[in-house]
UniProtKB/TrEMBL annotation:
<protein>
    <recommendedName>
        <fullName>Pentatricopeptide repeat-containing protein</fullName>
    </recommendedName>
</protein>
<dbReference type="InterPro" id="IPR044179">
    <property type="entry name" value="PPR5-like"/>
</dbReference>
<feature type="repeat" description="PPR">
    <location>
        <begin position="135"/>
        <end position="169"/>
    </location>
</feature>
<feature type="repeat" description="PPR">
    <location>
        <begin position="277"/>
        <end position="311"/>
    </location>
</feature>
<feature type="repeat" description="PPR">
    <location>
        <begin position="170"/>
        <end position="200"/>
    </location>
</feature>
<dbReference type="Pfam" id="PF01535">
    <property type="entry name" value="PPR"/>
</dbReference>
<dbReference type="InterPro" id="IPR011990">
    <property type="entry name" value="TPR-like_helical_dom_sf"/>
</dbReference>
<feature type="compositionally biased region" description="Polar residues">
    <location>
        <begin position="71"/>
        <end position="82"/>
    </location>
</feature>
<feature type="repeat" description="PPR">
    <location>
        <begin position="417"/>
        <end position="451"/>
    </location>
</feature>
<dbReference type="GO" id="GO:0003729">
    <property type="term" value="F:mRNA binding"/>
</dbReference>
<feature type="repeat" description="PPR">
    <location>
        <begin position="241"/>
        <end position="276"/>
    </location>
</feature>
<feature type="region of interest" description="Disordered">
    <location>
        <begin position="65"/>
        <end position="88"/>
    </location>
</feature>
<comment type="similarity">
    <text>Belongs to the PPR family. P subfamily.</text>
</comment>
<keyword id="KW-0677">Repeat</keyword>
<feature type="repeat" description="PPR">
    <location>
        <begin position="206"/>
        <end position="240"/>
    </location>
</feature>
<dbReference type="Pfam" id="PF13041">
    <property type="entry name" value="PPR_2"/>
</dbReference>
<dbReference type="InterPro" id="IPR002885">
    <property type="entry name" value="PPR_rpt"/>
</dbReference>
Amino acid sequence: MASSYYSLSFSSSLLPSPLPQDSHYHHRSKHTTAANHPIPRVLFRCATGSSNSSVAVPKKRHWKEGEYPGYSQTPRRSNRSPIKNIKKKLDRHNNAKAWVPTVTEDLTDRIQKKQWLQALEVFEMLREQPFYQPKEGTYMKLIVLLGKCGQPKGARQLFDKMIEEGLEPTSELYTALLAAYCRSNIIHEAFSILDQMKTLPHCQPDVFTFSILIKACVDASRFELVESLYEQMAERSIVPNTVTQNIALNGYGKAGKFEQMEKVLMGMLESTTCRPDVWTMNTILGLFGNKGHIEMMERWYEKFRNFGIEPETRTFNILIGAYGKKRMYDKMSTVMEYMRKLSFPWTTSTYNNVIEAFADAGDAKNMEYTFDQMRAEGMKADTKTFCCLIRGYANAGLFHKVIGSVQLAGKLEIPENTSFHNAVLFACAKAEDLMEMERVFTRLKEKQCLPDSTTYSVMIDAYKQEGMSDKVYDLEQQKQMMTANGHNGSEGIEMESLVDS
């Protein structure tokens, strides 16, 4: 299984698209020629009316100069070409007007595809043009993009460049910059930005700013900072909203702090300003479902329904995933039938949960059947789909099908993130192919994916089985360094709803 099987290639062009020949000027030139145009009837009447008078009556002007071609006493040659320098200026003007939307569309496309390096190159190309003035919204999108791609220093440089160019910062822009550091778990720098915002009258932190910081703190298990942030919000009379409380619920639940979680939840149930919603429901169900507490999950499902909260597709997907992990296939099927009955569509996540259930059990036959049905219904597979397939085939001992899945992922241009490489590493370890495992690990770093705790755990276990203590020691040192740098590899809830505009 060569690592080249799952390489991706990207191609792009920053050149403006070719322009058609401009016909507007030639159109005007043709019809301004007297030889090709009859004398207007109104002008003809004026001329005949003045012939009976000895005093010359000046001709009445019916059109402003340049508005209508009229009649010229010195006819132009019909085949005369436009003046050369004017034609060049018109072409240059039209080329510039057409070039700007082409490149700005390319910039938008790069941002949507999360190609941060290419997006910055296009942006720099635009900034060099005298007719282009970047706006606040463009900087916002780029800062958010750099934050998502783990480039907080690049986000800071772009932010500083924006200030140098005279654009006034806003609370939203500072919040986006703060979020970029939070995504990379650089919490001390995020708090520094918060302190800076407090000194600026027009950039004061709001509930979204504090919500992002609270999420970063709960992800890092810095719960003492969470309490401090709540106190700061109270001092500023900022009331936590439902999003803030959902973040705290999720953090407390993942850390096993059920007492604090219940306290927050009870406060939401009694509140008039931040009532629980379907996200609260999904958070609680997901926490109990992931821990295998099926009865608690079902009990809270009924409580939320009685509270008047209606489930959504994601709610049912959480239930399916929880039942699948416990191999309760009858209940899993019941939920899927219930979704059909209520006209809730089966999504990629629905199929992924079913595929994952069979993959964990090493049931390759049912896993393949579910995947084939997924593709037959036109549902697009994603990275998690192939992670589950690779792990499933590895659990079933079908390593030749692992290779086939990796090749298919390459053909479908499935993004190769850390989770994808971890699945391939798991398959290599299962096959006891340590040489290939090392090649995949090298490939992971070449693709600029950060190893996480799962990466090191899989490799350390594989080396331990072979008694390779020196390799185990090196990887444990790397893992400790990763933890010290704050890269814990956790993939928490996305913050798009908090910072994206």
